[in-house]
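Extended Data, record Sugar ABC transporter substrate-binding protein
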Amino acid sequence: MMRRRTALLAGCTSLVLALGATACGDSEPVSAGGGDKTLDGKTVTVAGVWSGSEQKNFQKVLDAFSAKTGAKTQFVSTGDNVSTVVGSKIEGGNAPDVVMVPQVGVLQQFAKEGWLTPLSATTEKSVDAGYAPVWKTYGSVDGSLYGLYFKAAHKSTVWYSPDALAQAGVQPPKTYDAMLEAGHTVSDSGLAAFSVAGQDGWTLTDWFENVYLSQAGPEKYDALAAHTLKWTDASVVEALTTLGKVFADDRLTAGGQKGALNTDFPGSVEKVFGPEPEAGMVYEGDFVAGVAKDQFGRTIGEDANFFPFPAVGTGVAPVVSGGDAAVVLKDGKNADAGMKLLEYLATPEAAAVWAEAGGFLSPNKKLDLASYGDDVTRATAKSLVEAGDSVRFDMSDQAPAAFGGTKGAGEWKILQDFLRDPSDPKATAARLERAAADAYKG
């Protein structure tokens, strides 16, 4: 989940800046070649969860937009509670022009509140030409395109220490069962197989989503995400049973169940790539690489690498994604200029700016993979783009926050309890259904 992961990597810090866009816009489009300074003297205010290195790298994109159009930009870090912060700004008459929305559910909420302006024909044309249709679907509400997915996450990657696997004499596995078998071999060599970040419930939802998408298939995944399929369905029980094979086996999990429940996401990466490794593998998204590199000095592709989350049973390997969608607020003081920013963000030129800076994946298939700075990032980006319409957005990010995005409640809490005691998948499925029914009703 991008918003929670971003906050964690930033140490849960946020910058509180004043919103202050005062200019008015016009309707001239921004061309990819640009440089005509048509927005000279105007300011575009952008709000989003990013802070730290992500905010710094996004600023490079905004600076490139400024150089092209003459517009000034102001970024406001909202912290985790995007909807609350943006709602209060709108009520106070001080709405930003553009918001980077980290969840499908929040984008839908904003659209249904009447806060958003449909994206321009120029942006929609770029999306149709450069993106798999699934990204347009996730950015649309009631047939209108409101969100442009600029930054994506590949959440079907298992990161490992090449030294740990080499010491155990195992190769990156191709199937889920082979992954558990390799994990036992790693355990026999002296390290736990997996470091699991059970203290952060969102990581457990990601585990479940990958298993479920591969095992149950995309149609049931979509139905469960929309809650047209109940969580008591046999497919959910089966996926929980499969996942429980990891959670119940102390040889597979660093510190056992108790250790996992006391490990947060950064700590889970440290247990594999830190100075005193405790495990050989950690499952999470492509953003693991940033922690391994920036916090623990690992060289990506050499002493930190990944393999795709493997296929479960007779299913195919899953590709679960998350992402940040740019939207334009109706009440922004310079919303027209904000729309020009989105026309720019839809181009491969804009994506290349952040790709070259690192810590970024784009769903735009027109972005040259050579723009990425290393082979591992190129591989994850290629996997994401080539998955096309088989990509499925993080299920919990599609759910109401009361079910899929609240610490100590809903899916997060129930899966933490399942990690603590995975002996009754059927009962866990029933708890999930009760929580989902209440949340979706609300």
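Summary. The domain at 163-318+409-441 is CATH 3.40.190.10 (D-Maltodextrin-Binding Protein; domain 2).
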